[in-house]
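### Sample
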Amino acid sequence: MYTVNNVFKYLFLIAVFPLFTSAVSWGQQTATVEGKVINEATGEHLPGVNIRLIDSSRGTVTDRDGDYSLTVPAGDAELQFSYIGFESTTESLTGLSAGEVVTLNVSLTSSYISGSEVVVTGTRSGGRSNLESAVPIDVISVEDLDIQAPQVDVNQLLTYVAPSFQSNRQSAADESEHNAPASLRGMGPDQLLVLINGKRRHTSSVINLLGGKRGTVGTDMSVIPTASIDRIEILRDGAAAQYGSDAIAGVINIILKEGTGLLTASATAGGYKAGDGETAKVNANYGFELGEEGYVNVTGSFTNREPTNRTGDHDLHVYIPGFAYPFDDNPEEVRAEDNSEIQERGKTRDDFKFHIGDAGMQIASTFVNGAVPVGNQGTEVYFFGGLSNKQGTGFPFRRLPVDGGNVPEIYPHGFQPLTKSSITDKSLTAGIRGEFRGWEIDFSNSFGSNAFDFRVTNSVNATLGASSPTAFDVGGFSFSQNVTGLTFAKYFDQALSGINVALGSEFRVDNYGINAGDEPSYRNYGIVDSVASNGLVVGQTDTLGRTGGSQGYPGFRPSDEISATRTNIAAFADVEVNLTQDFLVAGATRFERYSDFGNTLNGKLSARYLFGEYLTLRGAINTGFRAPSLHQVYYNKVSSDFNDNNRLVQIGTFNNNSRPADLLGIPDLKEETSINYSAGFALRPFKNLSLTTDFYQIDVEDRIILTSEFNVNELPADIAAELRDYGVSAANFFTNAIDTRTRGVDIVATYNHPFSNDHQLNFSLGANFNEVKVQGAVETSPQLEEQADLYLQSWDRLRLEEGDPQSKISATLQYDIGPLSAMVRGVRFGEVSLNTGGAFGEAQTYSAKFVTDLSLTYGVTDELDFTVGGNNIFDIYPDEHVYANSYFNVFKYPPSQHGFNGAYYFTKLTLNIN
């Protein structure tokens, strides 16, 4: 039987077996190459240069003095030297004798642009310069960012350095508080594909039901330690024809470190100017040789982030029994009376406050990346993966003393529930790659899982009265993915100016599950059967009129439990034809068959022309798709919420295979489809300066949304009667209901200049201008024509179209003077428009904000760096909510743009030891 444990056992054996055979395979016939790598223009040594033995897994990095040492097989060897901002170079050595020590010093030349690095995302030709690719690709070196940047996780790092990327932490948003969704070019989190070392990564088990990306499922990148990452490649173009589902907006490929012999460790501490949100982070990375030619690179990381509180100056008198609600007359007079009442009770105002802000979070992660050669034909077995756990504390709405969900005997002043998450994430990829008759062959298996266990504390089930527990297990979710892939690629150098052909296939198995909570977390003990005189049950009666289940987040019922599996098989081919040295044309096609909704066929055509070394023109057109996530197909839950009349009612989110969905004519979910157009250029007017501009349009048909709640009482009588049997008075669903069009432009400019006096200047400017619009009418069900406006409420439409910044401009300046490095970054987050109050709120535009980061790094010794700095150093906050959007002034700021916590200051120590 297919189980998680069996998968890990088999993959572990695949990965570990070569450890016992590598030494025998390679023997002891090796030589040593050592030397120093310097900046050709300044003579300055270069630390952190990647050095790879071509056609093998061997490699290393230079130390703080630019020195390196690498063991290579006797005979002939080719070494590749690469470094961000410099031209890569290859050095050949011939006739090396066993035991020989050879000195090879290398000078690297500053590249025409910072970012002419070889990229592997978006091509199967073995990599090409990102300026010479047919589609836009950003290359972000994480090593320097991890030392200098104030941000501590991948999502926040990319938000500040990649203008088209956006990730916002949510507040009082149930599961979404514990898993910040991320997006590219204003699209959904589930329209962005994430890869690790070129292999598909599993998504989170969480579906975002509240907050800015309602109804979507994203990939949790926060558990990937920044210390484990060598670089991140962002492909800003549709790539479903190459990589499959989800790649409508683009692809993020996270490349893990491979270096050996260098221990890097760091410790970070920081906090907000407001006095909360203290953050501590420690991580370490080390690579060691495996056998004669293999390597293992291991990273460990732990982050503790305390919660923040940015609640508004709300009407505190609502929390004191016997006092009026905030919409009464003269709230200021009542508030003054409350102050004395609070003091008489021996309390302070803080005892009655909401807590609204970032959730507290502890993240422990371990990642590994390794490879070992087998045989003598450049074949290697590789493996990588990670294990992490997140422990989160979130803050749902506070319950008032007079609320129907409170038990005054337990909480005489009301209470604010706490949501407690435990999220376990596992991943392991193992594979073998090598060459056979000129074909590069790669066979791999990737398994990943994400399990979300949820608890609620400081809560109550009001229908149990004073005997109610205050802590509940409310259940949780799980998602797992297993991908087996086989790829063949060959470069024909005699055809035209070179043709690369790649063929392959993948088989994927996905599983999604919901687990029920304990009985008090979901049951309403006041509901009893109504029995007629003949003994038949004729209905149910609420004998208490109180809210059942755990307050803050009611548990999943046994009827909500599910374990659903889907399989799909894919076949793909892509060809890159160099018609001349300057003219590249590429095409790709991919066929996939899903076990639940059928087949899809997609294609991509791109081209690039080089006008010397100064100008590149490029463009692409592709079709894409996104399969509905299993979460969207099978998520179902009955819970309590407020309706448009501010009455607490039972609302059912029913999956598409349910009887309610069938009654209301909700069709089975099908794939979203897209057409993506892009055109742009890369300009290099003179040495060290580059400018790229890329325009795009993304049309998505049959986009999946989560509807608003349909009132059962407004449905036809026969349908309403059957739905009431589920104990609900309202229902919502996932459905393919809208078409959208996204248009925009990305602009990236870079300049770097080395000075002869040990100084270095690097400058980058990036901008994204983006517009999202719903196209045409919303597709509705005939049974719901009378409530058609509930498919996409005006506030949901506003959030979809204008909830992300419609422009973002980022400028970074770094200046190095010997051991001192200064970095200053300014980011302008464009305006957004939201209505966070829903039916009780109003559309509000929040103005653009300019945020400044600053850090100073000093090399105390060759091994130790000391960094101080801050994010948002001028303490810029978003515009405040208007009263209608604030829930009686509870929410002061929107969870958008650059966050709502103000200035953050930090200090960091980084240690590098060879």
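The chain has two domains: 4-108, 118-314+353-913. This sample (TonB-dependent receptor) is used throughout the tutorial notebook.
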